[in-house]
Amino acid sequence: MRNVYHYSGAKLGNALGAIWAFVHTMEQGDIVLVRNGAWLSIGIISPYRYVKHLDNDIDGFCHQRSVEWKVMNENVRLYHENVHETLRHPGVVTKSKYTVHEFQLGI
């Protein structure tokens, strides 16, 4: 990440932390919330896989997970405050203190 994307300092640390969480913390079946402005997408994570032939300075993206999207681009205002609180976390990847039931996602 330093050589290809020229990340350094806190930006490099945040990116490496996100990759670590992506590989070692997330588990198959976990719920993922992705916010894009006023829109929210919700999905279920697949198992982690490492794709060796993509582990190079040109292709990248050798660490992979698929997502089964259950909700795509729905207005975030429709969701419970617990969802909003979790989405306010400054990290790229965060583990919520709430259960799926407490999010009241309806999926």
Topology:
Elements: H1 2-5, H2 9-25, E1 31-36, E2 39-45, E3 49-50, E4 63-64, E5 67-75, H3 81-87, H4 100-103
Antiparallel strand pairs: 1-2, 2-5, 3-4
Outline the structure in words.
The chain is an alpha+beta fold and 107 residues long. 30% of the residues lie in helices and 24% in strands. The strands form two sheets. The protein has a three-stranded antiparallel β-sheet with strand order 1-2-5, with no helix packed on it. A two-stranded antiparallel ribbon has the order 3-4. It is globular, with a radius of gyration of 15 Å. The termini are far apart.
The largest sheet has its strands arranged as 1-2-5
| Largest sheet: number of strands, sense, barrel closure | 3 strands, antiparallel
User: Helicity range of the residues?
Assistant: 25-40%
Question: What portion of residues belong to β-strands?
Answer: 15-25%
How many angstroms does the end-to-end distance come to? 36 Å
Low-pLDDT windows of residues: none
Oligomer description: single chain
Mean pLDDT: 89
Judged by helices, strands and strand pairing, the structural class is alpha+beta
- The count of strands amounts to 5
Shape: globular
Counting H and I runs of at least 4 residues, what is the number of helices?
4
Order of helices and strands: HHEEEEEHH
Rg from Cα: 15 Å
Overview features:
107 residues; alpha+beta; 3-stranded antiparallel sheet; 4 helices; 24% strand; globular
Brief digest:
This protein has about 110 residues and is an alpha+beta fold. The chain is built from four helices and five strands, in the order ααβββββαα.
